[in-house]
Amino acid sequence: MEQLLPQSMERHVDKQKFKLPMKLEAAKSDDDDIPYLTGKLFFDVVLAKSHVNPNYHFQLPVRITREFPRTTIPVVLRYNRKNWNLDYIGNSTNPRFDPKWRKFVVDNKLEIGDACVFELMEHNTTNIKFKVHILRGDLPPELQAAINSRGTMEDPIELD
């Protein structure tokens, strides 16, 4: 998989509340007018079984949900010049996207091991808009096996 950020920036991004310096911009994609990572707040996730099948559950990380109201509000996911409308369920102990997340997964043929970067383009008390960047699989077999085996009946996740 192609490295998108210089190694020196990878961990630095996390420490700066997920903001990139304005001068760091990747090349424009052929199919979108907005440059990759514009310096706005973002989070990323490597998709696991629970994200893509059978229940299509997507819980947002706490570090991003702190920015959102604790209520249900509309969300727009933008990818490849198309929009998907769903809801953010923020009035739950596990803030998440509603079941319409499944349509985004199916329409974009997302699979276990794909990575998504959700860049927060705008948000207020009545709506949220993310630009989504999708990075396709090609993970090393050892990492893919670890992702595939997490939380199964044979190998449950244990909390101390």
Structural summary, described in words:
- The structure is a single chain.
- This protein is an alpha+beta fold.
- Helices cover 21% and strands 25% of the residues.
- A hairpin with a 2-residue loop joins strand 2 and strand 3.
- The termini are far apart.
Provide the descriptors you would attach to this structure in a database record.
160 residues, 6 strands, 5 helices, globular, B3_DNA-bd, disordered N terminus
SS class: alpha+beta
Radius of gyration: 16 Å
Count all strands and give the number.
Answer: 6
Strand order, biggest sheet? 1-5-6-2-3-4
- Fraction of helical residues: 10-25%
Q: Span between N and C termini?
A: 34 Å
InterPro entries: B3_DNA-bd (IPR003340), DNA-bd_pseudobarrel_sf (IPR015300), REM16-like (IPR044837)
Subcellular location: Nucleus
Protein name: B3 domain-containing protein
Organism: Sesamum radiatum (Black benniseed)
Can I get a quick summary?
The chain is α+β, with helices and mostly antiparallel strands. Helices cover 21% and strands 25% of the residues.
Describe the protein's topology.
Layout: H1 7-15, E1 42-46, H2 49-52, H3 62-65, E2 72-79, E3 82-89, E4 96-97, H4 101-107, E5 115-123, E6 128-135, H5 141-149
Parallel strand pairs: 2-6
Antiparallel strand pairs: 1-5, 2-3, 3-4, 5-6
Protein name: B3 domain-containing protein
GO cellular component, one term: nucleus
Organism: Sesamum radiatum
